[in-house]
Amino acid sequence: MFRHWPLLFIVIPLAELYLIIEVGGQIGAFWTVMIIIGTAVIGVNLLRVQGFSTLRRAQKNMEQGAMPAMEMMEGIVLAVGGALLITPGFLTDTLGFICLMPAARQALIRAVIKRGNVQMHGFHQSSSYQSYSEVHPKGNDGGRTLEGEFHRKDD
């Protein structure tokens, strides 16, 4: 899987250069640069809004005792989308904006999970999450929980 990564670092910049030159030839260099800057500014603002929304959902899930697994994965996809948006170019901006769309982002995460590259405890196809108490009723987790006390000793 990882043997094709170096190829991406060659193909994507070349595709970006080609697109920038073609668009610049059609609308001019000034407007091409303005579009690239504009998409970065718009994208960063959308990223901020989506990031705060995801953070609020994660906090809500944690307050309810549920693992915010999807929200953590969405945070990763949002970070990748943000990096793509600040990278100059039309192809990376398009991919970055796709990462910002909630439906596309969740579909991408589900596809990665379904493929088996990521495993999350308590995640199901229906995007429902189970809290610890639902998975292990009455604290019975098969003997994996150690009970005890903690005392801090400062020297």
What does this structure look like?
The protein is built from 6 helices and no strands. It has 155 residues and is mostly helical. The protein has a domain of 106 residues. α2 packs parallel to α4. The radius of gyration is 22 Å and the shape is elongated. About 10% of the residues have low confidence.
Please give a handful of descriptors for the protein shown.
155 residues
* Mean pLDDT reading: 80
Structural class: mainly alpha
Number of discrete helical segments: 6
Instruction: Give the overall silhouette.
Output: elongated
The separation of the N and C termini measures: 50 Å
Kindly state the number of beta strands: 0
Proportion of residues in β-strands: under 5%
The helix/strand order is: HHHHHH
- Give the radius of gyration: 22 Å
Biggest sheet record: none
Helix percentage range: 55-70%
Low-confidence stretches: 119-133
